[in-house]
Specification:
heterotrimer, A mainly alpha (about 325), B alpha/beta (about 270), C mainly alpha (about 300), A: about 325 residues, mainly alpha, B: about 270 residues, alpha/beta, 11 helices, about 35% helix, globular
């Protein structure tokens, strides 16, 4: 048998010289390269968008600061760009932004954290399967609808307890914003807690600790960085949130940190200006880019802080 | 200075190989800075089964995956040396060689069955489609032939449009063999093809490999020494990225030249 | 210090007590979201259900609240979504495919990835400013459907990219190797395997993205969408040669959330009823889309087990 097959083999074993069949086919090679280039450009569009955002904000802001000194922008406590007596102090807008954000966080942080602990450490599989999609649905509701909720439902309810509360106020807007960001805070914090490996919990249970003790003394410390990241995500969401405050917080820039008053945030001011007649190149036009730049810098600041926190407390399980 | 594989094989084992399908010559392979293969030289005889054995991490799979340039898919891999493919006499590791062309002629079957989440027919037909086959009739013929060659036709002929995932593990692996066979490869690489299968499915695959060698040259990695003894004509023992011994399977298992080989096949380590 | 049985029992009882208290607090916390959703829906229905009739869908906005409808807003939203989908879906999938299947680990890839992450965190109104400067003025698209659609496309691009990448990452490497081993090129592997097998995940991301885009208000206001539009844009398909027209792209427009915002900012109660009715339509639309996405995700997760 072996002699038969070896005969066949020797017949083939003397190859006549032939062209290299393994060479690159030019059409295929270049076709693949072209496709890769197109896909790369698609991915690179993310960088292009960032560059465009920065370029547009910076150029329009520079034009703005040719008319308005930076010192006035940063220290003046009035923002009256729409009036005859114009003041260009960003502080009232910053105060409005920080106040509504603060109110939102004072609701979202405790509720979000407790929800996350419950979902991660207490809830059964089924509860989680029901609650998480519901929270997702909540996060998917258009913000302008939440504006309606804040203005026409929450504020009247608050006025029942606080009769002096004006119809436009930062408290109602902030609280509704807080509800809106609960899903973000709770889902990121829950992910962080669930990433804590089981053996750490088992160590705690083995010593007789209850669920709550284990959750607070073992799981939460181990998941600190993720939980802080969840809060920071909540902060940047709240800072950038627009429609709720534009609808319900009022649009007069007040330099106050009292949530019971009305106020304007950076975002609400941009909407207010954009709704009016907005001649290209006017100072009003440039001003929304200048405050927009402030907004971006604030979110960037919190993103960087979040990144550093995660690095500093990197969990090593 | 290089020895041809025939000479090398002759020196080490006294075996004359009739004809070569491929031959690795002094092959080094690196993952980044880590050298995974050290000067491996091995002849692959045409229409024979050559088995690669050795303990886990000895580089046998890495070596196998050099033959169809699978490492090219991952960053940081680097080949040195040659794998000469016959009858072309071309070093398929050369830069000018297109790995796609290499894979067009060298088929591979993996450790775990990896059918595509498509129908049985589409799984086997995919290689043909990649080769530009358009005719539905030709495709149907070739799919049937491949499934027959892989001893799967009788089990699936009435449900070619079913999802491949619905097959059993052994059937899936034979489907993967049919998928490779449909493209009429000259060399088939098997990377521990039965490690995820039960004994009966394993026996089926072994029998299949035994029959296939009339059609195609086979290079198989296995960590099951009985399997190597059962299916292969030649066996190579690898250890720590080096080829320790190569020869006729019967001789390797009955009369190993090297102490390491002997220790391994008698189960003293690995 | 030794613990006698009684002390231990007391400690355990106290621990269990606090566990129970926490369960109640935890359930209440979860209820905040669910209850808000319920109250919000009930409120919208209470305020707006009276205005929901066929006329509301087929009327243009009007100075008289009871005759006002959302026809132009519905058409505007649909056309804007069409532009958004056509721009964002191919771009997002292509970018996701590039990052997962082509990109090498180098500084350029890292920059792209950082940018995708950052863009997901940029407040939506900033996209409005970008579009105002870039699309409206620099490219001179004006305050048009095209500008709005592209703006929202950029806004949801990170959502689609991230969903695509996650879906692709779920495909085991052995499937890719199977295709490559048969001689497939990278593009053939992507086209015939990677993309088809990640359809479910990508689709989920696309729907979530579009649901977000349809409810976005701030960026569309920023580019200066008019709020009083009592006409429809040129129809994209006509009865006369060449049958397809692109004039609608440059048409002024309004969209659902802006229409709602507009009614909401009027002091008259009648207009606020309209706002509630528009809000109902908007909420139902987004809830349906998100529910569809969640359902799809569960279905695909069940169907393919690698």
């Amino acid at each position: 048998m072996s002699s038969v097959s070896s005969q066949v083999i020797t017949a083939e074993a003397t190859p006549e010289p032939q062209a290299n069949r393994f060479e690159r086919r030019a059409w295929r090679h270049w076709g693949e390269r072209l496709i890769e280039a197109v896909l790369f450009l698609a991915a690179f569009s993310a960088v292009a968008v960032t560059v465009a955002i920065v370029a547009i904000l910076v150029t329009e802001s520079l034009a703005f600061f040719e008319h308005v000194p930076l010192s006035e922008f940063l220290t003046d406590t009035q923002w009256t760009i729409m009036f005859a007596d114009k003041h260009y102090g960003v502080l009232p807008l910053l105060a409005g932004t920080l106040t509504t954000t603060g109110v939102a966080l004072s609701l979202a942080v405790p509720v979000g954290t407790v929800s996350a602990i419950y979902l991660s450490e207490f809830a059964g599989h089924r509860t989680r399967e029901i609650v998480k999609p519901t929270l997702e649905l909540l996060a998917g509701i258009p913000t302008v609808v939440f504006g309606y909720f804040a203005l026409l439902m929450v504020t009247p309810a608050l006025q029942y307890f606080m009769p002096d509360l004006p119809g436009f106020n930062m408290l109602g807007a902030g609280l509704v914003m807080g509800v809106m960001i609960i899903p973000y805070v709770s889902s990121v914090a829950e992910d962080a807690m669930r990433a804590v490996p089981m053996h750490m919990r088992e160590g705690s249970y083995a010593m007789g600790a209850t669920r709550l003790q284990t959750a607070i003394k073992v799981v939460m410390p181990a998941a600190t960085s993720g939980i802080v990241a969840a809060y920071i995500l909540g902060i940047s969401r709240a800072i950038g949130e627009t429609m709720v405050v534009a609808v319900a917080a009022g649009q007069q820039p007040n330099f106050t940190f009292d949530p019971r008053e009305s106020g304007a945030t950076i975002t609400a001011f941009i909407v207010q200006v954009a709704l009016g007649d907005l001649p290209h190149g006017s100072l009003e036009y440039q001003s929304i880019f200048a405050v927009g730049l402030v907004l971006v810098l604030m979110t960037l600041f919190f993103n960087v802080v979040g990144h550093l926190v995660r690095k500093r407390f990197r969990e090593a399980y | 200075m290089e020895m041809s594989a025939n000479e090398l094989a002759g020196q080490k084992t006294g075996v004359e190989l009739s004809a070569l399908k491929a031959e690795a010559r002094n092959l080094n392979f690196y993952y980044g800075d880590m050298q995974a293969l050290k000067g491996v030289s091995l002849p692959v005889a045409e229409r024979r089964v050559t088995a690669l054995i050795g303990p886990s991490g000895c580089g046998k799979s890495t070596f196998l995956r050099c033959f169809n340039r699978m490492h090219d898919l991952y960053d940081g891999s680097r080949y040195e040396g040659e794998i000469v493919f016959q009858p072309d006499g071309v070093n398929i590791l050369e830069r000018s060689v297109d790995p796609i062309e290499v894979r067009m002629r060298i088929g591979m079957v993996f450790q775990k069955p990896n059918p595509f989440p498509k129908s049985i027919f589409e799984n086997v037909a995919y290689g043909l489609r990649v080769r530009g086959e358009r005719s539905r009739r030709v495709m149907a013929e070739k799919v049937e032939a491949a499934l027959r060659d892989a001893s799967l036709w009788d089990e699936v002929s009435d449900r070619l449009d079913d999802m491949a995932f619905n097959l059993s593990g052994g059937q899936q692996q034979r489907l993967c063999i049919a998928r490779a066979l449909a493209t009429e490869p000259e060399l088939m690489l098997f990377d521990e093809p039965t490690s995820a299968l039960d004994p009966i499915a394993t026996a089926n695959i072994e029998e299949l490999i035994h029959r296939l060698k009339d059609k195609v040259t086979i290079l198989i990695v296995t960590h099951n020494m009985q399997q190597a003894a059962r299916v292969s004509d030649y066996t190579a023992f690898m250890y720590l990225g080096e080829l320790v011994e190569f020869g006729d399977t019967n001789l390797i298992f009955t009369n190993p030249k090297s102490k390491q080989t002997e220790d391994y096949i008698t189960g003293r380590y690995g | 210090m030794a613990y006698d049985a009684q002390t231990v029992r007391r400690l355990v009882a106290r621990g269990k007590h606090w566990d129970k208290v926490f369960v109640i607090i935890g359930l209440l916390s979860l209820m905040v979201g669910v209850l808000t959703l319920a109250v919000l829906l009930a409120g919208l229905i209470h305020d707006g259900a009276g205005r929901l009739n066929l006329d509301f869908f087929s009327n243009f906005p009007s100075r008289r609240a009871e005759r006002a409808g959302i026809l132009s807003a519905l058409v505007g939203s649909s056309l804007v979504m069409l532009v958004t989908a056509l721009a964002a879906i191919p771009l997002g999938i292509a970018a996701g495919v590039y990052l997962e299947e082509y990109a090498r680990k180098n500084w350029l890839t890292e920059i792209i990835e950082i940018n995708v992450t950052n863009l997901a965190g940029v407040p939506s109104i900033i996209y409005g400013l970008l579009a105002l400067g870039l699309f409206v003025y620099a490219f001179d698209f004006g305050q048009s459907i095209l500008s709005a659609g592209l703006t929202l496309a950029l806004l949801i691009l990170p959502v689609i990219i991230v969903a695509t990448r996650e879906a692709i990452r779920a495909i085991p490497g052995t499937i890719r190797e199977g295709a490559y081993a048969l001689g497939a090129t990278r593009w053939q592997t992507v086209r015939d395997h990677v993309v088809p097998y990640s359809t479910g995940g990508i689709l989920t991301g696309v729907i979530i993205g579009l649901a977000r885009a349809i409810g976005e208000t701030a960026p569309v206001i920023t580019i200066g969408a008019l709020t009083f539009i009592a006409f429809l844009p040129e129809a994209p398909v006509g009865g006369e040669f060449p049958f397809i027209s692109f004039e609608w792209l440059s048409s002024p427009f309004t969209v659902m959330p802006i229409q709602m915002f507009n009614w909401l900012s009027r002091p008259q109660a009648a207009f606020q009823e309209n706002a509630a009715a528009a809000g109902m339509v908007l909420v139902v639309l987004t809830l349906l889309m998100n529910a569809l996405a969640i359902w799809l995700r569960l279905r695909y997760r069940k169907r393919i087990k690698w």
